[in-house]
What we know:
The protein is 82% helix and 0% strand. Helix 2 (44-66) packs across helix 3 (77-108) and helix 3 crosses helix 5 (123-150). The radius of gyration is 21 Å and the shape is globular. It has helices spanning 2-36, 44-66, 77-108, 110-120, 123-150, 154-160, 167-174.
Amino acid sequence: MRRVLTFLARELREALPATLLFLFLFHMVCLTKAVALEHYDLDALRATAATVAALIVAKAILVVEALPISRAYERSTALNIGWKALLFLVFALAFHFLEELVPLVWKRGLGEGWQAMIRETDWPLFGVLALWLAGGLVLYALATELARAAGPGGLRSLLAARVPESREHAARGRG
Length: 175
């Protein structure tokens, strides 16, 4: 039982940063869509969809991080950030497609379910949301690589450190 709890605690700790980032990002996207479409009411369905999407992306990130292919470019930080962001995006979009496709296939069969999904998807909106997702995933990959480079506790100490005043700023403040 202790092993199970340890495993669950580790999974939760690893998924929490991505979940929080994408909860914020997807709720901001929902708010943007509501304002742009002049639907100022924020209903529970939109909030639930944004929350589910954030959980799906967090799970996609955990799956990608567990795969050996995610470590293909570990020697180059810039390549590693781009590679992981691309892998995260592919897996997140695949999970999203499956989330939409499975209920349709369950009700209508594979062929008709696939056609219904292709026909009913708002492709321009899907493209814009994919761009938001790609941007968020690049930021996430950048942040995780910076945290990894800073080492254990390094990022926390960098964020908590006081910024030294420049000489010019200090001179202006005294004068």
